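Students often ask why we bother encoding 3D structure as a string. The short answer is that it lets us treat folding as translation between two languages. Here is a chain of 120 residues written in the first language.
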Amino acid sequence: MILSAKIVCTLLALFFVATGWMKAGGHPHMIEEFDKFQLPHWLRILAGVLELIAAPLMLLVWWLPTLASLGALLVSAVMVGAAYTNFVKRPAVFGWGTLVILALCLIPALAFNPLQPLLP
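And here it is in the second language, the structure alphabet:
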């Protein structure tokens, strides 16, 4: 289970490096998406920066799993907003896709939870 969670965390980190870079860097597709949904561009930049902060933390899963858990929690918050936007502004299939990514983010967040030893 732990090895699987580490692999999922690593793959997600690589995904969020790419998407964060596209959002924060002002890739034309991301600008178009935020314009289409009538969302402010500061939100695009904020989401991208949060993804770019979380991704390196998630890559630390092989050495410091607790930090990876914090990165996964951070990016999970971004994914909640993305899921909401996709369910409200697009066909439902896009919302379900973001919920799958959110669920995958919760795997390392729960597997390497720093509070786990305190829980009964």
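Translate back mentally: The longest helix spans residues 65-89. Keep this in mind for the problem set.
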